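notes to self, project folder thing:

trying the whole complex as one job this time. last attempt i did each chain seperately and stitching them together was a nightmare. two parts in total, labels are on each line so i dont mix them up again. if this works i'll redo the older ones the same way
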Amino acid sequence: MIGALADSYTYVLFAILMVVGLYMVAASANLVKKVVGLNMFQTGIFLFFVTTAYVDNGSSPVIPAEAAAGDRYASPLPQVIVLTAIVVGVALTAVSLALIVRIYDEYGTLDEATLREVRTDE
Amino acid sequence: MSETVEAALALLIVVPFLGATLPLVLGLVRDSVGWAVAAAVLVVEAGLAARGGYTPPRGGRVGPGLGGGACWRGDAALSSGESTEGFAVGIELVGDPFSGVLVLLVAGVSLGVLAFARQSGPRSNAFYSGYLLLTGALMGVALTGDLFNLFVFLEISGLTTYALVASGRSPTAAVAALKYLVVGTTGASMYLVGIGYIFVETGSLNMVDVSRILAGETAFLDEGLYTDPLVVAAFGFVAVGLVTKAAIFPLHTWQPDAYAEAPDTVTVYISALASTAAAYALARVTWFVFTPAFFDAGAANRRVLEFLLVLAAASVVAGSALAAVQPRIKRMFAYSSVAQFGLIVIGIGVAVHPAAGEQATTFAVYGVGIHLVGHAVIKSGLFATAGALAAATGARRVSEYAGLARRRPVLAGGMAVLGFALVGVPPTVGFIGKWYVALGAVEAGHWPLVTVIFVSTVLSLLYIAQIIERLYFAGVDVSPDPAGTGTGSPGETGEAVAADGGAGATAVATGEASLSVGMIALAVVAAVLAVVLGFTGSELSAWLDPVAAAVADAAPEVTA
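result (full assembly):
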């Protein structure tokens, strides 16, 4: 049990990050915290991908000229995927923060419940 | 497939993306150049879309690619002595009859909505950049043959949609866009988790290769991976993610707000294409990556699919029922989309259900393909008509539609025709789509689903009949003068205008009618198309025949 946990603790971490992030998105009333939760959710997924790329004793996947068959390299594809996904995540965060700034300018609140009240008053 | 056709596939994605930079760059020199640039780019795009052959190659295993030049497929010995077994290297683009449906739809709708946008605005150059970006992303969703690439294009289309929804002046649009962003991103992330699971299990992201590996058709596997818990979980994540994007109950919450608060032009565009692209992606992944064989492989697989069907059925009922109680027109049509996509997901699920024979699968595939197109035409037409009526008269509520048929006979007629098409009255395209989905469910013996489909027809008649009754038969209890509506019911109209802001508010403020020929033309063209497509049922189903055959054979790709 302990051994399995030591080997695969990143997978456990992935599950925790994902669930905590998702919970924040659903439960937090603060819009900024929702976005933070979203980021945490995505970070969990990045961790998952990076973990799958890890190879015991593997070196970085830049193959030298004198490479021999059976050399161990970390898998480059998941890392490329994570890189792309990070870019997508940053763009999403930027757009969401821009929207939040606009909402705050207009209503003066970031709290979802207050926002709903303000809007029904209109 | 000739080289020009292959190049056309890549250009379909590249042209709008490059074109999206032009409104901003040329905007430095001249103001309001955006519409002209977008029109030019989209005419080129429509030409390219018409050129595509949509018959897949696959003889030499070389498809056109993105990112790394041509996608490379071939047998090569690796340094470790293993064979690549013809796996794809690079991102493949797939031009088959199924993606062709969506490509032609995206190209056509993008061009058509421009006619609406000319007068209705938003007129900033940045808006047209976003518009072209969205077009390119939707083309990417249609054409990509790579699971991760699909995620990227879904996110690009999502991001631009959020920005476009918020492009109206009203602050409520920003709130709606943020809600859409949070839910949409969560959905896309779910999809990414599913892709991660698939990648871990198969080591590939190419749709055809993943499908072959899952089926166990490779030398390094003794048997298929269908019953692997990770693969079943992967389908669950992918389905939940895409279903969120397609706005299926109970994950539809973002959609009515986004559709109702966005500027009219944006509503017309995204109602036709945003959910459609997600539903198409769900169909492609379900049919060609997982294939019917996956759902027949184990009890858990079957249960996941049945859960999806239950959600879809709930979506049909809840969407129709919620639509019937909405006082605001745009919200009513938005909820009706929830119901229509429930219908499409029912079709997607029925096609691969173990109980479905070849006949049921064929009907369900026809139904999904035709209803995707039909719904896009009908719903964008309805939103365009509603937008035009609002621009002409300021009416944005069902109650304000009283007697409008006398003042705007063409628009009211268009709305009536499109409304009946939505209900599924023959001979419209809405009828054929619904008919085939229902026929598929009947053939497969899913009687509860058949009941749901027919109940939904009655329910949709409920809200469409409300509108038509108001338009044609209601007495003129609202003053015929558009300015008079404001004084007649200050609370109602004032709120509607304030909430909608944008074009409506400016029109009222300046007292200028912002109805244009383009807006009426789009409404009329959509209404005519909804009827004309209804008479081309056999042509549409013949076009989809190879797709249906491939699904029935559990093949990973459509072959001519």
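what i see at first glance: Chain B touches chain A through 31 residues (CB under 8 Å).
need to look closer tmrw
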